[in-house]
Automatic annotation (TrEMBL):
The lineage of its organism: Eukaryota, Metazoa, Chordata, Craniata, Vertebrata. It holds the Pfam family ANAPC4_WD40. Residues 537-707 form the Anaphase-promoting complex subunit 4 C-terminal half WD40 domain. Keywords: Cell cycle, Cell division, Mitosis, Ubl conjugation pathway. Residues 1-74 form the Anaphase-promoting complex subunit 4-like WD40 domain. It comes from the Eukaryota. Residues 197-393 form the Anaphase-promoting complex subunit 4 long domain. InterPro entries: APC4, Apc4-like_WD40_dom, APC4_C, APC4_long_dom, WD40/YVTN_repeat-like_dom_sf, WD40_repeat_dom_sf. The keyword Zinc does not apply. This is Anaphase-promoting complex subunit 4. GO terms for biological process: anaphase-promoting complex-dependent catabolic process; cell division; protein K11-linked ubiquitination. It comes from Phoenicopterus ruber ruber. GO terms for cellular component: anaphase-promoting complex; nuclear periphery.
Length: 725
């Protein structure tokens, strides 16, 4: 994906294909505010939301089908209920502490949450006003994502692979153009579907509720991402060096030829101050005084980093998640508003419980870190002195002081952590598990190697003996055997499950209102790469009309057809379909009398609600005949005199089989055109708000940008520059 500035074609950034995101981009869409670009990848079936300023993925998710078309629209509806919601959006910011930014010194995964100054999260959430990313894919796959992040509808019942989509800004109607291929037939059939919702359309009639629910869901998705990244940082803070103790001791067991256990060897050193020759060799030659110091420092710095991350990031993220889920549960219990959207209180209750279990697990990790830090400190301090004595170095008097309490402490540590465990060797290839924190951060389904010891814990005993509390919904279930990663995955699964239901419910409420078979695609004679720009869909927001532009080839002339449908399917628009052909306006003097129809339309695009931009070529194309970029005003197409000739659609036939009955307009353009010199133009993309058109050549190598509204000595458009790749 390459992003260029329009003014001077300066490259802003490029995002090369990579293993994580994918290699084949098939669809792009801008968020209506222009701050985020979404693109769909076919090979990995992922959607990436990317920041406009720098090529960083702010959010990504997987879909079930390869995406062929994307459309990102914004709701323009206004109502007092919505306005009050837009204003109340910040109440969670008042109640919840701001999420601390993740530390910068970890890998790139955490960039989105790390820059202290910019609120990347808020950039990702964008404006409160509802916007929706509509995805269309192969085999009838259509999904709608609120704010580009949270799935609010899965639409079923549309056949074929999607070539165009348009959701009206009042959310009443979704238009889809698909391509249906018969296995026997090499030519595909293009079909227009207009789907509208049942009962005055679920999405538009529940707009405030849908907006509020989607907004909550988006908060929840960002928090899950935040928790995931915090965990990634914790895994990075835990270093491999911490495994040294386990591996050295295991090696020692394998190589020693005495019968005393490792635990006893260390105990003897603790009690008599004398070590066997083997232990001496292990400590002095393999571990060394310097190595011991380094190991001690690593453990301390690593543990305290992990501890900080748990306290400030993991816990605050989980608490915010708990807050939003509880609010969502409150919404689900307001049945007359949210039940028909598929919000289910019992599912959300389960999600809250899962978050509770995650918080418990994080607390357990904190306790393990705390006790490990104390134990290791005492153990290393004692071992350091013992090793100094072995090497007959001078021992500082303040290091030499060791109270009875310290000795007991080290002895307990040895008893608990230095047991040889042959069954562990078969599982993990080591006999010891002295280092207890790493097991919580491993992303595997195995149980913990050394789960915390809960014997003698009064609360556990109390729970065990109480019949009423065992099944109480108020107590979060506790998984003593499982790692933090496991509990996190379980939590994500439960939350996804409970947020999945509205998408199915809303999707099922969508039903098909109209299905028209438009035309068969002709296999292109020349080998120009097919970009599939036409048919083109446009939604006129002010009058709620969908337009479809497409061309049908007849007698070697491509006429352009304009189909109008009202988004409210019960109302029809007069002149549902018209054909437009272009008369000769390049007063060249040659064969002027012979045929007035002499232009074929190559591509067409709505410039704004009143104008269509087209690329034309002369039908009798000879060498040296140039292609033309022109503006077609709709007012010249829809005139009042033809109200009487209404086209009667025969739904059993394709449109191209009944094109003879469709009334045709011949349009002569006065001055709204320009010849495209030295360029075999084929495709056009326009932006009416910024008043520009981009023309792309048929070999997809040349782009020209035009300013469309420049008044300059009789020349309507002014060429800005030509860019050749």
């Amino acid at each position: 994906v390459l992003l260029h500035r329009l003014a001077n074609f300066q490259r802003v950034w490029s995002l090369p294909p990579n293993e994580n995101t994918g290699k084949e981009v098939t669809a792009l869409a801008w968020r209506p505010d222009g701050k985020i670009l979404a693109f769909g990848l076919t090979d990995t079936k992922r959607i990436i939301l990317c920041d406009v300023e720098k090529p960083e993925s702010l959010h990504s998710f997987s879909v079930d089908s390869s995406i062929t078309y994307m459309h990102w629209m914004e709701v323009t509806e206004e109502s007092s209920v919505l306005t009050s919601f837009y204003n109340a959006e910040d109440e969670s910011n008042l109640l919840l502490p701001k999420l601390p930014a993740l530390p910068k010194n970890y890998s790139t995964t955490a960039k989105i949450f790390s820059e202290e100054k910019s609120d990347e999260i808020m950039k990702l959430l964008g404006d409160v006003r509802l916007n929706a990313l509509v995805l269309g894919g192969s085999s009838g796959f259509i999904e709608i994502y609120a704010y580009g992040m949270f799935k609010i509808a899965t639409v079923t019942g549309v056949a074929g692979s999607c070539r165009g989509l348009c959701l009206s800004s009042d959310l009443k109607s979704l238009s889809v153009i698909t391509e249906i291929r018969d296995s026997s037939d090499s030519e595909a059939e293009i079909t227009y579907f207009q789907a509208s919702k049942l009962d005055t359309s679920l999405l538009s009639s529940y707009l405030p509720e849908v907006t509020r629910m989607a907004r909550k869901f988006t908060h929840i998705s960002t928090l899950l991402q935040y928790i995931k990244l915090s965990l990634t940082c914790m895994c990075e803070a835990w270093e491999e060096i911490l495994m040294q103790m386990d591996s050295r001791l295991t090696k020692f067991v394998q190589e020693k030829n005495t019968t005393t256990s490792v635990q006893d060897e260390f105990m003897q050193l603790l009690l008599w101050g004398k070590a066997s020759l083997e232990l001496q060799a292990l400590l002095m030659n393999q571990l060394t005084v310097k190595g011991l110091k380094k190991l001690g420092q690593s453990i301390e710095s690593s543990y305290s980093s992990i501890q900080k991350l748990v306290i400030s990031h993991l816990q605050s993220g989980s608490e915010a998640l708990l807050y939003h889920l509880s609010e969502l549960k409150g919404m689900a219990l307001w049945k007359q508003k949210y039940e028909s959207l598929g919000l289910d209180a019992s599912g959300i209750e389960e999600a809250i419980t899962a978050v509770g279990s995650f918080i418990l697990k994080a607390n357990e990790l904190l306790q393990v870190i705390d006790s490990s830090m104390k134990n290791f400190k005492a153990f290393f301090r004692w071992l350091y002195v013992a090793m100094l004595r072995m090497s007959e170095d001078h021992v500082l008097p303040e290091l030499n002081k060791m109270t009875q309490k310290d000795i007991t402490f080290v002895a307990d540590f040895l008893t608990e952590h230095f047991n040889e465990a042959p069954e562990l060797y078969s599982r993990k290839g080591k006999y010891f598990n002295v280092e207890r924190v790493g097991q919580y951060l491993k992303d595997e389904d195995d149980d913990l190697v050394s789960p915390p010891n809960t014997e003698g814990n009064q609360w556990f005993n109390f729970l065990k003996n109480s019949t009423h509390l065992k099944e109480s919904p108020l107590l979060f279930p506790y998984y003593p055997e499982k790692s933090l990663h496991f509990v996190k995955r379980q939590m994500e699964g439960v939350i996804d499950q409970c947020l999945q239901k509205p998408a199915d419910v809303i999707g099922k409420s969508v039903h098909q209102a109209v299905c028209m078979s438009l035309y068969k695609t002709s296999q292109s004679e020349d080998s120009t790469p097919q970009l599939f720009k036409l048919p083109f869909l446009w939604n006129d927001k002010t009058s709620n009309i969908h337009y479809v532009l497409f061309t049908i080839l007849e007698n070697s002339i491509s006429k352009i057809y304009i189909l109008r449908r009202h988004t409210d399917t019960s109302r029809s628009v007069s002149n549902g379909i018209l054909a437009v052909e272009f008369g000769n306006f390049l007063n060249s003097g040659i064969n002027e009398s012979s045929d007035s129809r002499c232009y074929s339309c190559l591509d067409a695009h709505f410039y704004d609600d009143e104008t269509v931009t087209v690329v034309l070529k002369e039908s009798m194309e000879q060498e040296g005949k140039e292609r033309v970029l022109a503006q077609l005003p709709l007012s010249s197409v829809y005139t009042d005199e033809d109200q009487d000739r209404e086209f009667i659609w025969d739904s059993t036939k394709r449109l191209d089989e009944q094109s003879g009955e469709i009334s045709t307009r011949t349009v002569f353009l006065d001055n709204q055109w320009r010849v495209l010199e030295n360029m075999k133009a084929q495709y056009v993309a326009v932006n009416g708000i910024r008043k520009v058109s981009c023309v792309l050549s048929s070999n997809l190598r040349h782009v020209r940008v035009f300013e469309m509204d420049v008044e300059d000595d009789g020349e309507v458009e002014e060429e800005e520059e030509e860019e050749t790749s």
